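During the reporting period the student researcher (J.K.) took over the structure-prediction task from the postdoctoral fellow and processed the backlog of single-chain submissions. One of the processed entries is reproduced below for the supervisory committee.
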Amino acid sequence: MGTLLLNPIAFSIGALEVHWYGLILGTGALMGLLFAIWEGKRFKIPQEFFMDLLLFGVPSAIVGARIYFVAFKWEDYKNNLWDVFKIWNGGIAIYGALIGAIICALIFVKKRGYTFWRIADICAPSLLVGQLIGRWGNFVNQEAYGGETTEAFLRDYLHLPSFIVNQMNVEGIFRHPTFLYESVWNFVGLLLLLILRRRKFLRAGELFCSYFIWYSIGRFFIEALRTDSLAFQGAAWLASFVNGLWAPMQWIGFEQGYLAPSYGNVRISQLLALLIVITAVLFIIVRRKTIPNMPVYLDPIVSTKATEIDIATLQMPAPAAKTAAEQDNGTTSAEEANTLNGPNSTEDKKE
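J.K. obtained the following structure tokens:
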């Protein structure tokens, strides 16, 4: 059976080829930015702050994602170093992107005088927006797909449209559209975060942790469907434990993607997902028990540097407004007279 492929190149400008992969990732980043700006307005954070954060954060995320991926695939790149820079062909790891973006954000947010956890909370839904859109870049590149399946499973069991089913026909074999599974999971997570962030019980930093918990749960189950997972050779009990946790997926008709025994028996993203979920839950519990009077999500957000500017502005004298009656009568209130004549005007009159 033939394979229907989408052209990964959107258009060309001379010798420059613009790939759909880059356009889709850019669209995801832009939509994430708009979400952050929209929520930032509630806390009176200027939109330029988020634009600058994106300007530094995206390159940091791409570098982190590529370093993470190449580090675990070094055998494939050590003799072809130029291929390390060909990110348009895919091969970036989302956890590496998060590491790069978080390191950048920690530095940037501190320099702007904000608390990291407050800004991270605002940006948490934006991360899901970027990811749910960005995964469609894998669809166009026909990569990051899952193990073998049947056309009937995709059409009749999952009721997927033809353009997805056809693209999942990879060299005559139908594959699980893991990009779609993760995109849908992230969309549901986005709705949950949008609801959660309006709850009064939510403390600072907990929406960001909730993002990691939700995403990592989905990634744990979806990752095992893939055939291109980064893996390592772990203890037999660890591999058995991970596979046991994944067993519910078999109950609903899914099978794990093939992973060569010589390559490894534990998928790195699955193990990392488990560790992230445990760490995030413990982090929330420990902070609630050890930090008194922790700010809640809905509390005002103030930059220490912005506060200095505001104080200077407040110290500048402002003309008092006249009441309508005073304007009609041409009179001046005592308070206004004191403001205009100075703080000693009352004593001057007495003298």
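The committee noted the following: The beta strands are 9-13, 16-19, 169-170, 173-174, 231-232, 266-267.
J.K. will present the remaining backlog at the next meeting.
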